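Lab notebook, bench 4. Still working through the backlog of constructs that have no structural model yet. Next entry is a single chain of 257 residues. Request: give me the structure tokens for it.
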Amino acid sequence: MAPRSIWNGAVAFGAVNVPIKVFGALEDKSIRFRELHAKDGSEVGHRLIDAKGKEVPRERVVKGFEVSGGEYVVLSDDEIKAADQPARKAIELSDFVPGDQIDPVFYGKPYHLAPQKDAEDAYALLVKALEKSGRVGIGRVSLRQREQLVSVRPVDGVLRMQVMRFADELVDPDSLDVDTPSKKPGKKEIDMAGMLVETLAAKFEPERYEDTYRERVLDVVKAKEKGEEISLPEPEAPSDSDDLMAALEASLKASKG
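Model written out:
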């Protein structure tokens, strides 16, 4: 079944508008479990309980923002909507930046953009212009009742839009409590580490990397369904060697073998 668009609009920059359709670019395959009553296997529901242990009806629940320890400002749904921007009918790109200047950590959820009917030529032109320039469009759009910062870039001849994280959402690496090494790495260690990296060098082929956890969980489910006994694997014993050179030499030997 062909995917259905989740939003129709346009990519706008300057006085140019390219009509597009937005499609989800991810298929959720996460393992999920339901909570069941151990006695009879029936599904278990959850109730809303206040601090005194009394059940609270859903219609009596309000939303509050904590302004200080234990103190909240209560807002209605309409009051929260007052912060909304007018719905944007287009992906409004304001800047085009070099793609190699964007740290991947800023990229979030991806979407595919496809041309609307009769917009194929304008769409193809935008793809080619971005491919030639090596730049990524940065702008804003309204998705799911919220204004989002997004990027637009070409990937294999198709425009990809990704929700972007804001700079103040990222933890500054300088704030990490990282111990200073007791000594600087020696030239021989650096050379050997570089050799190990080169022996493991490969072309990135995403299809090579499978979700082995999901496969193992599904295997356990199938085995349990057949009534088989589930045995827990023995954890691997951690290496007790702190000799970095010995570890590098062993790794190089294993990789070459």
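Notes after review: The chain is about 25% helix and 25% strand. Residues 120-133 form the longest helix (14 residues). Flag for follow-up if needed.
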